[in-house]
Amino acid sequence: MQIIGKDLFRLLKKNLGPKFNSFLSEKLAAIPGDISQENLNLKNFISKEEIYNQLDVIINVAGATKFDERYDVALGTNTLGVKHILDFAKRCIKLKVLVHLSTGGLIVENPHNLGVSLNGVLGLDIDMERKVIEDSLNQLQEKEATKEEIKVAMKDLGIKRANKYGWPNTYVFTKAMGEMLLWHMKGDMPLSIIRPTMITSTYKEPFPGWIEGARTIDGITVAYGKGKLRFFLASPEGVIDMIPADLVVNAMIVVLVAHANQPKHIIYHVGSSISNPIKYRSLPDYGYRYFKAKPWIDLHGKPVKVCKGIMLDSMVSFRRFMFLRYQLPLKVVELVNAVLCQYFRGLCDDLNKKIHLVMRLAELYKPYVFLDAVFDNMNTMKLLSAAREGDVEMDLFNFDPKIIDWEDYFLNVHLPGIAKYVMK
């Protein structure tokens, strides 16, 4: 019920009526497991041998997706988890294809080669990264660190190790290392890697606007719509590469059909920056127009008014804005607090935490909002062309970003979806 109870399935429920549960029980079998463990730590609801003998397709979409996830968690899921999936796949005697969902961390549709860093720094070794984590955890335990201190230390360690080898954050670093292992150990396994860019709410299927949770820019959208954010950090003329979730799913389905039993290894970028680019300068305008016409209603039943957002086009302008608007007034409050014997200590601590959070988020998103590049999608366009020539039902499985009218999508699909499913 945790999954099928979501609104995502409402059309299927409506169409099937009382047959919905029996239909799903015939099509689905949920098996608890953990990809960070050997053999996926499968529970004994079904024998491993039964799976090995019946499974013909594996799609790996598991991942720890926070940019600053704990390093031990991200490495276990995004890197070692991929190896465990591959080991499992090699035991499936009827397997036709393995599809791995990764992330758009490279500009070109080329593999991440084992041990090769983005910045040319030598010494990237996945086993060594495991040891770094183990040593750090042991040191923290010896110091009797609290759970919160361990969590913060593991997050900081991930960012530090990622930056050392040229990646902007823990997420893309560990996903890249997962690809390295997959590509290095694939053998003759029919393998396709799909790298979607920024995934947004559904364009059409099963209905427009469905989304779960605030991802990437959507967190900024939520803060703006609630009146808590008045600025946007980005290069106005920069291209933001995004793609609706259902177009990614359509691409995955077509890849499955195209590569089943084909001894090929190929990488697909699924994005929009080449075929149908949208620039950052459009986003504040879309947000203002939507939330002005349909303001968010706060807990007291009052509509929240939004103003036109300020576009900050560099980290220098961002730091200046933060200093004048927030940090300088905080200094005044801190002085008053000192004079009044810590009367405003709670307020000062709260403001400091919020400012620190904003500064940290700015650093995490900086590599993306100032990225002056687009993502190569030559392989994806060839697949799209082949699908059309091969009589694929493109009205059902279209993944061409050219079909999207971005203004209409944001004002009538994506932002209403954010308001309904995230800001509720």
- The value of Rg in angstroms is 24 Å
Shape: globular
- Structural class assignment: alpha/beta
Mean pLDDT level:
91
Query: Main beta sheet, described?
Result: 4 strands, parallel
Number of strands: 10
- Oligomeric state: single chain
Which residues form runs of ≥5 with pLDDT under 50?
none
Helix coverage percent: 40-55%
Number of helices: 15
Distance between the termini: 20 Å
H-E order: HHHEHEHHHEEHEEEHEEHEHHHHH
Strand content: 5-15%
- List the strand order in the largest sheet: 1-2-3-8
Characterization of the model:
By secondary structure, this protein is an alpha/beta fold. The chain has helices spanning 10-16, 20-27, 48-54, 71-90, 126-142, 147-164, 170-185, 217-225, 245-259, 282-293, 315-339, 345-369, 378-389, 394-397, 406-421; strands spanning 57-60, 97-101, 191-196, 198-200, 231-233, 239-240, 242-244, 265-270, 278-279, 310-312. Helix content is 50%, strand content 9%. The strands form four sheets. The protein has a four-stranded parallel sheet, with helices on both faces. The chain has a two-stranded parallel sheet with strand order 4-7. It has a two-stranded parallel ribbon with strand order 5-10. Helix 5 (126-142) runs antiparallel to helix 6 (147-164) and helix 9 crosses helix 13 (378-389). It is globular, with a radius of gyration of 24 Å. The model has no long low-confidence stretch (mean pLDDT 91).
